[in-house]
């Protein structure tokens, strides 16, 4: 039977912002493809919460740094649903070291997960989106793409590449009625931040310096993603929306 519900893929949705985004999409009536790389238990918990909202959940495991794994993931999506309406490119990783201490495998790993994956996922997503006449792609990035953060050189460059690719894809896919944008977050206290050697310093500095007087929360980023996916954002193309309470405006 042909699937008539809209379908969304959220990479890295076993935890954190990806998990919250998947659940929000389920609340909006989407069936959700829950992607994970390591935490099957987390993916299953996301699926449980998605299904609580009456939506179908499909769990897929894939290392999105590998093109062949991306191909397999999208083949599974096509077989299960036959369509894709939304792709939220949230999966991220990276080596946190000063530039002078980076090794080639550190660079390749970070760039492949954070930038290359968007390109090859988009190449597979677009034909499924074209079946329905439109589509929406939103990536998660960070202000480290435009500001120098300690130990963040490889990740920051990979995020800058992601934002540049967002612009190129937005123009190339506009004629197919596929919107491509990104959401850039300030410092958010997530599991990923635990890997930062200067985590406590980052959190305290952000609390003190953010003009709005509080840290960015996961829900702030999910709200921005949801806006970019909505019809109200139909003329926003190739943009990176910064959600940081204004801290990046300060020198």
Automatic annotation (TrEMBL):
The keyword Oxidoreductase applies. Gene3D superfamilies: NAD(P)-binding Rossmann-like Domain. One of its GO terms (molecular function) is enoyl-[acyl-carrier-protein] reductase (NADPH) activity. Its EC number is 1.3.1.104. Pfam families: adh_short_C2 (PF13561). GO terms for biological process: bile acid metabolic process. Keywords: Oxidoreductase. It comes from the Bacteria. Signal peptide: none annotated. It is an enzyme of class 1 (oxidoreductase). PANTHER family: OXIDOREDUCTASE, SHORT-CHAIN DEHYDROGENASE/REDUCTASE FAMILY (AFU_ORTHOLOGUE AFUA_5G02870), SHORT-CHAIN DEHYDROGENASE_REDUCTASE FAMILY PROTEIN. Homotetramer. Belongs to the short-chain dehydrogenases/reductases (SDR) family. This is Enoyl-[acyl-carrier-protein] reductase FabL.
